[in-house]
Fold this sequence. Notes:
This protein is of the alpha/beta class. The chain has a domain at 2-69 and 140-215: Dihydrofolate Reductase, subunit A (3-Layer(aba) Sandwich), CATH 3.40.430.10. Helices cover 28% and strands 25% of the residues. The structure holds NADP nicotinamide-adenine-dinucleotide phosphate.
Amino acid sequence: MIFEKIIGIGACDEAGIMGKEGKLPWHCPKDLKHFSNTTLDCPIIMGRHTFQSLPAHYLKDRTAIIFTRHPLRLIPKKTQKLASGRVQSAENRFPRRGSYCQYKPPSRESISRQLSIPPPGQLLSLFGYNCPSNQIVVSSLREFFAIEGRFSTLYVIGGAQIYTLFLRENLIQEFILTRINGLYSGDTVFPLSLLKGWPNCRVEETPTFSIHRYAYPCYNYPHKT
Ligand SMILES: NC(=O)c1ccc[n+]([C@@H]2O[C@H](COP(=O)([O-])OP(=O)(O)OC[C@H]3O[C@@H](n4cnc5c(N)ncnc54)[C@H](OP(=O)(O)O)[C@@H]3O)[C@@H](O)[C@H]2O)c1
């Protein structure tokens, strides 16, 4: 993958709450508009929970990169019956414990070596689900960097797990963070501590929220290929 920069974008309340039961804890159309305008036409990077919470129109006409360690969880419910049937028949092809006298359970590594588990996209199609061509599913940062293509700006749009992954690995050059006024109840917390020490400025102030732009000072992409 070749890219210019990765920018984080998100919103949290005064205490850092950013999600509740798979949704946003607030209704703030102005901030959603800011999100849409800022990321318009750019590729977006997200975790599976965020992907499954996004209205379809955010995924139209642009590349979406989805992180999951369990690609089969992306299969929509209506096609899951078929998929689980296939899992069952695949399992039946392997000997069960006790089938051979000297059976030793294989290690995880040897299973993946022998089965050569295909990349997530291929795995999904083996299970009868074809991702739309603009959606790329990855299971790790290594697979993320192996995506073929040339991009200018990519946006990391959440959730907390994926912000944390990218911030910890120093992969984010700028972060555009909306602070929603007030305190909300929720179950997902923005990793504010990972932006500590980043120079930032307030770029917009409204009666309900303010937008801050954080810049990582001495930036280089260690993994850029
Ligand atoms: N306020 C905002 O700006 C904002 C933005 C986005 C989302 N949200 C909210 O935040 C919540 C979702 O956030 P979240 O933190 O729970 O979930 P998330 O980051 O969207 O997705 C988590 C999932 O990503 C996958 N994942 C995480 N680390 C990975 C890694 N290193 N490699 C491969 N896959 C990895 C795992 O998928 P598998 O379980 O499939 O393996 C994990 O369960 C929702 O409530 C959403 O509405 C708020």
